[in-house]
Amino acid sequence: MKGFVTNNALGVQIVVCATADALTDFVTQIQAQKPAAAQIVAVSVREMEHAAEFEGFSIKPTQTTPNINLPLTPDFAQCAQCAAQMLDPHDRRYFYPFTCCTQCGTRYAITEKYPFERENTSLATFKMCATCQTEYDSPEDVRFHAQTNSCPDCGIKFWLTDNFGKILTQENQEVFGQAAKALSEGKILAVKNTSGYLLLCDATSVQAVQQLRERKRRPTKPLAVLFPDLAQLRQHVYLSEKAAAHIGSAEAPIVVAEVKNKGAIALQEVAPNMDTLGCMLPYSGILKLLATQLNRPLVATSGNLHGSPVCADAPEAFEKLSGIADLFIHHDLPVRHSQDDSVIRFTPKYDIKLVYRRARGLAPSNYFEPTQNKVDNTKILCLGSDLKSSVSLQPNSHSYTSEYLGDLGNYETFQRFEATLSSYAETFSLKPDVIVHDLHPLYQSRQAIEPLQQRFPAARLHAVQHHEAHFAAILGEKNSWENKVLGVIWDGTGYGTDAAIWGGEFFLYEKRKISRAAHLNYFIWILGDKMAKNPKISAYAILGDALGQENFEANEQRIYARQREQKAVQTSSVGRLFDAAAYVLGFERTVFFEGEAAMYVEQLAKMCGTDAKNVYLDSEDFLSGEKLLANMRTALGHGASRAEVAAGFHWSLAKMIQKVAVQQGATHIAFSGGVFQNAYLVDCIAQKMNDLTLSWHEHLPANDENISYGQLKHYQYILQ
């Protein structure tokens, strides 16, 4: 066969001269023998006239075009073959962390524009040496046309410094050897990884982990652990085959798993009061070299200050992390898209996949969508939510959802949010016809609207209610637009169409319409954002004086009572119901991170296993959070254990969903909202309603990260 192959704005283009039979076989073989990291989302074949005669088959250079219409390639974990070369003392890439090939290595993190060619990345200034160029030009070589090909002679340079910026060494083996020695001595290391900085310390050292927590001001939120290899990881946690496949995949996310044996890990310091551990394997050459040198578990957490984006370059890292890290490993490859690690979990009983954070390896392309999934030619930009922010867009026949950006209440995160909007607009030459935003009038994301309107004056504005966006996200992910579906959307907060704070919603979808079918009974929203930080406030908002005066100082109770009497704002929030349940079950302090109280309730419930437990719902008023909590308190007063009542609370929520499903005649239920990151609750629901079709998020987080995607799908599919 003769012809050529090239990349263009639509993807890979192949022009060949062949008989019909040969061409059919060729197309079949391309799909059957595609590279492991490749995803073929569509194949189209057409006959064309071509005047030129081909002498053979060649690769043509990519032609730059302003109109990109293809998925964006995420970052890939280093493959086993490249890792072996990097660790081989006889190989020319020995101890070179950016050893990679066509099947692995950084992509999205270093991309400046598309298509993905070396000249369009931050590697453009690193000219390949003669040996690397020979590899690049050789069809037999694993680095044939590998855009990120480099070696110690022509590639990225590393250096180790102290936290004053003094260079300690610039020789690769010494950089990683000295860093590993410092980690073994209890020091904290900031390392510039492939997509931004990480903070590392010895996970077996109580003192080192405590010091990291104190310096980073992260008192209780669980930390992830980097294991040197899968064998060590399996010694410490239970890992299903599905979980093992994901943690060892090209995406290489953090996987939250049940602890089997804490071994030498300082578990109480790493994950206080938890029996799960966020686990990861060394997915980059940088992490593999450190893990190989040290051969023990390391705490690995984002290189940032609380609430801020991950640091991307040395000046920023010195400014923000020099008070945390004792040593720094830097390199000179610019990171254009800094990202956190993705986080997933599988439920213990039914092995249902839950995505907690979608970032490195998973973003930004929505590969899960049907091929060329576009309703019309409308170009859409969606601004998402404030907490766990992301942005989504449909500039062509593909949709894209950014990596996790963070909380827009943080100024630096908001700057990153604006930069992400600008970057996508430039990448796709996007002039949106519609800008979609949340209904909440005070969301930070709405601050981006005015500058966007100045830049794109023809763009129309469109508001979507928060929980309807959640529902549209799961409908879109599962492509359930032709079905009748009951949506259960439970989270902490979202502005409702009646100006109440929604969060315990039941919706019906049918024939491109969404209607609110039911909700958790309203209770009073007290003291604004403070309510989410203090479970006692939620408990009082629901139970009132029945909670007992002994739980309050006199002035405190007067303030809460006045707020409750005013009934200024009402809420149906299941997130706050979880907080109230946590208080009833003994969680009596303020929370240090979002979801901490709910995790406490889940942790208690797990002590009782997943067999059906007592249900505390009122038989008549089964949507009443007040009666549910009152019955739980009665059970505790009659001698039931906290663990038993916590389990019953989860089973009560599952029963509540079942009752609404029966009322509505639903046979298909879809779930979204941050509450459904609770693995115990998901297993309870799966067990109780195993005769129904249940849809869970598998590709997007159930939390507010999916709001921007839901806004996009809502605009495209829901009748206005």
UniProtKB/TrEMBL annotation:
Keywords carried by this UniProt record = Ligase, Metal-binding, Zinc, Zinc-finger
MF terms (GO), sorted A to Z: carboxyl- or carbamoyltransferase activity; double-stranded RNA binding; ligase activity; zinc ion binding
Q: Which InterPro entries match?
A: Acylphosphatase-like_dom, Acylphosphatase-like_dom_sf, ATPase_NBD, Carbamoyltrans_HypF-like, Carbamoyltransferase_HypF, DHBP_synth_RibB-like_a/b_dom, HypF_C, HypF_C_2
Pathway in which this enzyme or protein is active: Protein modification; [NiFe] hydrogenase maturation
> Which Pfam family, an example, fits this chain?
HypF_C
Q: Which residues form the YrdC-like domain?
A: 173-361
The reply on keyword Metal-binding is yes
Q: Name one GO biological process term.
A: protein maturation
Tell me the ranges covered by the Acylphosphatase-like domain, including all copies: 1-61
Query: Which branch of life, at top level?
Result: Bacteria
Which reaction does this chain catalyze? Answer: C-terminal L-cysteinyl-[HypE protein] + carbamoyl phosphate + ATP + H2O = C-terminal S-carboxamide-L-cysteinyl-[HypE protein] + AMP + phosphate + diphosphate + H(+)
- PANTHER family associated with the record: CARBAMOYLTRANSFERASE (PTHR42959), CARBAMOYLTRANSFERASE HYPF (PTHR42959:SF1)
* Stated family: Belongs to the carbamoyltransferase HypF family.
Protein known as = Hydrogenase maturation protein HypF
